[in-house]
Amino acid sequence: MELHHPDLHHKNKKFKEYFLEFLMIFLAVTLGFFAENIREHLADKEKAKQSIETIITSVASDTTQLNSIITSNKLSLYYLNKFIKLKSSDLFENKTKREFYDDVANGSYNDVYFSSNDAAFQQLQTSGILRLINKPGILDSLFKYQHNTSLILRNEADHYYFSKLVWEGMSKLIDVTYTLSSFDTANFNFEVVSGVYKVPEGKELVFDYDKKTVDKLFNDAVVLALNADFHISLLNQQLVYGKKLIALLKNEYHLE
Asked: Is residue 79 part of a domain?
């Protein structure tokens, strides 16, 4: 009997079959790569959007604060200008002495400074999300807002220095312990110009007149008034720019 052994050798695959297998693997890897890129792009886009929303909230908080600070600084400037006009008055007259105290106290003690809510900006720079913001003009606008804030902070340092000179001059001429009992909260109103510090009725104002000290106090008050006027202009500019920045970000990122 003749035995037939099975054929243990497989037939060789055709080139076309190998090519199709290679093509399928290549397409699977490529599509997976593109899918991952799309997923990362969408995730990055969402991160950028969330960061922009946080910045909008921060800038909106700043604008609310700026409105109050501008009003307060305008009130201070109003009293400083009133005080400066007293230089040609008779400072020995009791009414003038009371105005002298009221005006210089309200003009120099009512110092309210801007504290920008910059946590969102700091996070944007340290988290690496800054690289995800690639819309034209957005980065420039954000950096300009921070630059404006730095200008305000530098000018505030000057304002505090000039205020301190006025305080020192005032303390040499007037018994400033009146300040502790003269803060008139009942008449404190940012919308209507009214006294904040006021010599208590019926009390005699202690005034130690020294011409050299008085002249220096008026000169320091003039410098403080000039600085305050410039400071108010910086605050107004930041207020306007902040509102424009919010509108720009909402428009570019389609936010309500």
From this structure: yes
Q: How far apart are CA 250 and CA 235, in angstroms?
A: 23
Rounded distance, CA 256 to CA 249, Å?
10
Q: Residue 2: inside a domain, yes or no? A: no
Q: Does any domain span residue 45?
A: yes
- Residue-number span of the structural domain to which 157 is assigned: 15-252
Structure tokens at 3: 């035995």
Q: What are the C-alpha distances in Å from 197 to residues 10, 107, 231?
A: 105, 10, 22
- pLDDT tens by residue, 183-234: 554 454 444 444 566 665 656 666 778 889 999 999 999 999 999 999 999 9
- Number of Cα atoms under 13 Å in the Cβ half of residue 14: 3
In a domain, 5, yes or no: no
* CA 218 – CA 239 distance, rounded (Å): 31
C-alpha distances out from residue 186 to 177, 183, 192, 200, Å: 20, 9, 12, 13
Q: What is the pLDDT of residue 175?
A: 73
